[in-house]
Every structure is written in C-alpha cells, then in structure tokens.
C-alpha cells in the first residue's frame, strides 16, 4: 500500500507554528482536524521537520490512524477546571514579577521544567528548559501569559511562581506553576491561592490548568485545590523520516 493510500482517512489542515519554528529552528506545524480539510499526503507532512497532533484520549480511531502513519506519542496531559468562588483566600507574601526578576526566573524555569513534550528525539536535550525559560520571561513582560506572580518568604526570597492568562471575560488559565529550586515542599497550595485571588480580582469564574499525566504531584495538587478533570489528551509527533 502506498503512503498516500495509507493517509487517505486523515483529513486535517497543516497549521504552521511560526513561533516554535523560529525558536527551535525546526519548521513545525500542527494538525487541525476537519471533515472538510484536504487529505494528508506524505509530501505535505514531509514539508515540516516536526508535525504535532493533539488528540482526545477517547478518540481511539484517530489515535490508531496517526500511529499507523508514523506519529509517535510524545506526551499525555490532563486538563483541569477550577470553579472560582468569592470565599476568602489565605495568601502567602507575594509580588508581581518585574523585569528585574527575569534572569532568576529564567534560570529557575530552565532547571524545573526539564521533562516536557519538547524532548528527544524530536528536540535537543536542552530545548525543554530553554522553552520554559522563555515562557516565564514572556509572562513577566505580559506577552502570551498576562502576569507572573512570585510567592516569597519574609526576607523576600522567592518560594515559587505562577503565571496566568485571562482567556475570556470569565475564564483564565495557569501557564506555569512551580516551587523555586531548592526550596522546601508545600509551595503548591499557596501558589494556587495566589492564582485564585488573581481570578477573584478579575471576576473570573473558571480557572483552567493542564499538566502531564505522569506528573502525579501536580495531579494531586489540582485535585486538592478543588479542580475537576475536564479532559485527557495525547500529543503525537511525526518527523519526515518516520515510517508512514
């Protein structure tokens, strides 16, 4: 069977990922599935160094089709939704990060976020940390995420941080949430309290956050915070030399 025949049942638009292509120096695209999209062909797929596809864990037919066409599982994730009420929140000492915090935040993010979907064999070993270092800088500058909030101790030393983005009038999403490298445990709940407070100030009704399926510490944190699982999904990647 030819490669084109094998791809006949996958209909999707190839959406170029300009920022990722430039940042990783790898022409990248993501599949946008649609019944009225063109049939994917090997030539179209091979135009990119990496093609990504995010599929609901319940969509077994699409998962099987992608796997048969050379896409490999990169990561599984769980998406949570936390209703925001008006109850009082016990807050840690905190501040809004500014540009003076960028250098230490970049270093911390690069050390914390070593395991992600930006990993070998699709990306270089240091790419995950480099990606999240840039993410947290962008949040401080108010691009992509809106803000970065830092929890700190009485002496002002950082204990952890959370970045947030208001996606709609009543919806927001956590981008990054992490304890500062080398600090004692137990920073998760105070950081979630910070995120909840930020949402209350903006009359946000629902706060969303996603994490890796294998990150059991984060899964427990979000469930303890009152968030409910909304969806589970898988990320699949394909390179030109992967088998069709």
Automatic annotation (TrEMBL):
Domain N-acetyltransferase: 92-244
EC number: 2.3.1.210
Gene encoding the protein: rffC
Protein name (database record): dTDP-fucosamine acetyltransferase
Chain residues that bind acetyl-CoA: 215
Alphabetical keyword list: Acyltransferase, Transferase
Coiled-coil parts of chain: none
Function according to Swiss-Prot or TrEMBL: Catalyzes the acetylation of dTDP-fucosamine (dTDP-4-amino-4,6-dideoxy-D-galactose) to dTDP-Fuc4NAc, which is utilized in the biosynthesis of the enterobacterial common antigen (ECA).
NCBIfam families referenced in this protein's UniProt entry, alphabetically: PRK10975.1, wecD_rffC
Subunit structure: Homodimer.
Organism: Symbiopectobacterium purcellii
Active site: 222
Domain of life: Bacteria
Stated family: Belongs to the WecD family.
Pathway noted in the entry: Bacterial outer membrane biogenesis; enterobacterial common antigen biosynthesis
Catalyzed chemical reaction(s): dTDP-4-amino-4,6-dideoxy-alpha-D-galactose + acetyl-CoA = dTDP-4-acetamido-4,6-dideoxy-alpha-D-galactose + CoA + H(+)
Gene Ontology terms, MF aspect: acyltransferase activity
